[in-house]
Amino acid sequence: MPEITFRKFAWSDVPAITAIYRHYVDETVITFETEAPSEATMADRFGKMLDLGHPVIIATEGDKVLGYAYASFYRPRAAYRFTCEDSIYLGPDAVGKGIGSALLAKLIEESRTAGFKQMLAVITAERANSIRLHEKAGFRYIGKYDALGFKFDRWLDIVHMQMAL
Length: 165
Ligand SMILES: CC(C)(COP(=O)(O)OP(=O)(O)OC[C@H]1O[C@@H](n2cnc3c(N)ncnc32)[C@H](O)[C@@H]1OP(=O)(O)O)[C@@H](O)C(=O)NCCC(=O)NCCS
Prior knowledge:
This protein is α+β, with helices and mostly antiparallel strands. The chain has helices at 14-27, 39-52, 99-113, 128-137; strands at residues 5-8, 56-61, 64-73, 83-90, 118-124, 140-151, 154-164.
């Protein structure tokens, strides 16, 4: 595993995280977005999470941004305010090296500190590595929804996993 550092988000990270996310929007069914957001849109999204005090973590190796993770409200309605959903995206050349597990562990720790009590993972069902990642971190499998998404001309199932923080 490379020497990596986890740190808080900085505005200068926006181009790198936008490039990482755009890859997954354009090339994969991991995210259900179909139009890659601009840097301005990503900056707006991350700014809102910072304003809410939600954890946003950047994984770096030297000056290079390897990936990012955040936890934000699962649903906007007030009674859900102690429940977060995690998101983790590593650049394609950073996957499969154990970095995701370390990043998720850090996100779980910061989400507890932020006051969240439950963390949900909402995962495209065919992504076995993401399911395994969450299982290793202590999430339990809740169930699978059939055909909640349609992208690249096919229907996509969704798995929900949950961990009490
Ligand atoms: C998902 C992601 C965060 C995982 O991080 P990672 O550093 O690549 O994963 P890790 O190496 O820490 O661990 C992944 C686990 O899945 C396992 N795995 C990989 N491919 C697998 C497969 N096809 N079937 C089952 N398990 C698999 C690995 O062996 C490893 O488990 P192990 O430690 O027990 O061997 C990363 O791959 C990523 O950013 N992918 C693209 C974006 C994404 O999918 N985000 C998640 C959205 S919910």
